[in-house]
Amino acid sequence: MDIQMIEKLSNAFGPSGFEEDVVRTLAEYCGEFDISNDAMNNFYVRMPGVQSEKPVVQLDAHLDECGMMVQSILDNGALQMLLLGGFHLTSLPAHSVKIRTRSGKMVRGIICAKPVHFMTDSERSGQNLEIEKMYLDVGATSRQEAEEVFGIHIGDPIVPDVTFSYDKENGICFGKAFDNRAGCACIVDTMKQLYGERDSLPVNVVGAMAAQEEVGTRGAAVTAQIVKPDLAIVFEGSPSDDFFISAGQAQGQMKHGVQIRIVDKSYISNAQFIEYAEELAGKYGIKYQEAVRRGGSTNAGKISLTGKAVPCLVLGVPSRYVHSHYNFCALEDMEAASSLAASVIRGLDAERIRHICHQDLF
Ligand SMILES: [Zn+2]
Q1: Residue range 147-185, pLDDT digits in tens
Q2: I need a surface site. Which of 16, 236, 319, 357 has the fewest CB within 10 A?
Q3: Is 213 a catalytic site residue?
Q4: Is 235 exposed, middle or buried (0-12, 13-18, 19+ CB in 10 A)?
């Protein structure tokens, strides 16, 4: 997989509703495909010249990352924030962020951490954090300065200020937004693996990167209507649990391969689709792990409910500390995810699709 692509995708600015930079970055790596976008920033990648009557497999990943928005500007120049997506408040104070102004300028800010010297006992406990009482400091000393000199406007989007790096020796990526730029990279990589054999593939593969997942899987409600898939493969930068749950019980361990999600709050996976994918993983020696998630949701929740019902295979790249500034993930897990997706697509035939879609039930 192309590390430079992963780097650019991770560094791209793309909180929910502001995914244009991620779309432009992906477009740079999709020169051989037919690409298009829509009014909410969903991005579609199609194999050129493929017959339209084949069954359609949609490859999904979301473009957006958890971010924030400037909610108001106070008289002293501090900014208040609105969350776009599910950051936990304990991971925000003392972190730096980037604010994109209306003119496109990036302004660095620090989410205020009140010096311990000024804290009350209850503040020192770190309990009862509220976003309404957190402030963002861009270095301005008045509202006028924040607006006129820094160019800040309410509604400006914000992302964590983190720069990607790759540890080649250990195969580890460090950066922000692996949820879900890891998935976006997997779609491009899967489609590149299949490009040379596109005419002989049993299905038509369409990449659909969706906007606004972190605010309620909104983009996928549109992409699935446009793509009209028979089957879908949903890629996620899934949260790693290996530092929080004992080794025997962990279901999202870094360097343990692609994570096949059996269930979460949004979708109960199609057992036939999973069985088929695992059979191929075994056959081709692709490392995988299974997850039964008590929480979480993905675009599969929306895609599965469209058209005539769409079986989805949810493939995760275990990513540490998602929904906070700094993430780790392993290149080998991303490669396992795209290899499995490519093998699944190559192996499909009419009978297999009928079986997955329960058309042979009686
Ligand atoms: Zn995600």
Answers
A1: 999 999 999 999 999 999 999 999 999 999 999 999 999
A2: 357
A3: yes
A4: buried
Q: Which two tokens stand for residue 16?
A: 């929910």
> How many residues are listed for the chain in this entry?
362
pLDDT of residue 198: 95
- Write down the domain spans for the chain: 3-65+176-356, 68-160
Return the CATH number of the domain spanning residue range 3-65+176-356.
3.40.630.10
CA 316–ligand 1 middle distance (angstroms):
9
Q: How far apart are CA 317 and CA 257, in angstroms?
A: 8
65, 213, 332, 335: the active-site residue = 213
Residue found by looking up tokens 């993930």 in the block: 329
Burial readout 317-332 (b: 16 or more C-beta within 10 A, e: otherwise)? bbbbbbbbbebbbbbb
- The alpha carbon of 236 and the centre of ligand 1 are apart by a number of angstroms equal to 5
Mean pLDDT of 34-48: 97
CATH, domain range 68-160: 2.40.30.40
Give the annotated binding-site residues for Zn(2+). Answer: 62, 179, 214, 236, 323
